[in-house]
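Reproducibility note. Readers wishing to regenerate the assembly model reported in the main text can use the exact inputs given here. Chain order matters: entities are listed in the order in which they were concatenated for prediction.
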Amino acid sequence: MKATARAHTNIALIKYWGKKNQNFILPYNSSLSMTLDAFYTDTTVEFNEAFTENQFFLNDNRVNNEMATRVFDHIKKITTLLNQPNLPHFKVWSTNHVPTAAGLASSSSGFAALTAATVKAMGLELSKSELSRLARLGSGSATRSLFGGFAMWSTGNDLTSVGSAIDEHPEMDLHLLAIETNNARKKIPSRSGMQNTVETSAYYDAWVEKAKNDLDLMTYAIKQNDFELLGKVAENNAMAMHATNLAAVPSFTYFEPDTLIAMQTVQELRDNGISCYYTLDAGPNLKILTQSKNIEAIKTYFNKKLPKASIIQATFGPGIQYLS
Amino acid sequence: MKATARAHTNIALIKYWGKKNQNFILPYNSSLSMTLDAFYTDTTVEFNEAFTENQFFLNDNRVNNEMATRVFDHIKKITTLLNQPNLPHFKVWSTNHVPTAAGLASSSSGFAALTAATVKAMGLELSKSELSRLARLGSGSATRSLFGGFAMWSTGNDLTSVGSAIDEHPEMDLHLLAIETNNARKKIPSRSGMQNTVETSAYYDAWVEKAKNDLDLMTYAIKQNDFELLGKVAENNAMAMHATNLAAVPSFTYFEPDTLIAMQTVQELRDNGISCYYTLDAGPNLKILTQSKNIEAIKTYFNKKLPKASIIQATFGPGIQYLS
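Running the prediction on these inputs yields the following structure tokens for the assembly.
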């Protein structure tokens, strides 16, 4: 009763920001993402009568903190929902090829891989859609990491609010450059950040409406293979998400000085005819969307403007994979 | 036919951001401000048959640019509205004791002083309210600079959208520290910035609603002499104003890296028990609201965190004054 799964993280181009149901993790708006080849999590789950306790190892280290509790709770939730109450103790080994909690949603690949490995270790076979529903109960963004290419997570109820493939093998020439200026754990976790915003921001309702419209524009851009439209909508949607936080009570922001420098640098590149756009999750590190021909020019310019930043390049990644 | 007026600039605690009528400068929401003693404009206007052309001198230099055109247009508008079409040519001498266009609304004191000096030079006497209406046609924020202490500019029509005194001699112990990190002219003038936002921001309607609610809270805070409430509402209102710009299409911001450092510094001061709040106009320079006992601690800490910033201190200033 042992299985290993690999899930890739994803970057939301239409953001998920706020739950209408905390317990079931049901979002107020549908979101859309690009699965990334360069960032992934490998997770092995083993149920074994010989084990005397549940254990979680992250990057080869035994972990016994809140994160471990979240992992254990997720596995228990899965076994309960799948009516397998009498399983033995388990061990989980997880290797994160994602900078943890620096705004590159390691929880998306983490909970997608954990869910898939757990279900397979139990000897069951579920569709990606069914796995996505289970992954959602661990982390909302994980719903999209079951799928490659462009994926969407729909708002809905416990059964319908799942991920789906928009285009698993997109034709679009699309690359992401993650500009990492701060690799510290973020000060405001996205869970509490979005919840404060749902409860207090005067702009939250307008955000939900805008996200709906942006999603329509984004799916159109994908269908038309229109990079410029995709970039513009992604950038504007991300900034509108961050705007809701400024209008929360009290106001808060994930922006840091280097975030603004990176945003300004993208604007300068555009002014010089290099087409690129940015998006930003609940953290300070900007991610740039661009196309093959511009990657080198962007890296060179960023090395000049933000010499301390590390730049990690990615393009489309695959959906869930089973390594054993 | 010569007169000199002094008007003090003001800092909006409930922001003005967007016009429902461009021609008459009628705002979507009422705003509220603190008139500041440390920043003012002295303006002399003289109508003289001996003059062969209209001239504008700013800080002792003859100016012949867009700003001069705006000054000339404003005087012509006043003489037309007051039915004095046959006045001779005029000269205007203006001295700005305000860092120009660095986010400290020099146009508020500028157009208030220009309006008052022009009307007096014409030999007329108008109420502050009538002067405020005329000043509005030059610059919206100038409506509030006719009044000292706390002043409000009401939304309304051409005759009712004027400034009024909320409390010309407030009891509140309230000081402003302007943190000047960038004295360059701002890249996006507030006029075009707010207009882009009115036309494209998904959050604009919600901003207008929020500004109404914030205004009620602010007038309550003033009546109750409640500095903490005043500070909290001012900070949140300013951030909500800036949030509308992030949601404009395309997104834009007045934030600069030093703006975020200054915001973070205020947060650190609060974490250390030093009560202070910030506000921000359409520029990068943060303004801190605080009380007497905390001024030195704030200055000392800012000198450490932002050593290159200059800090200018202000408290309540008076309404319009005639120097001759």
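We highlight two features of this model. The first helix of chain A runs from residue 66 to 81. Residues 175-314 of chain A form a domain with the Alpha-Beta Plaits fold (CATH 3.30.70.890).
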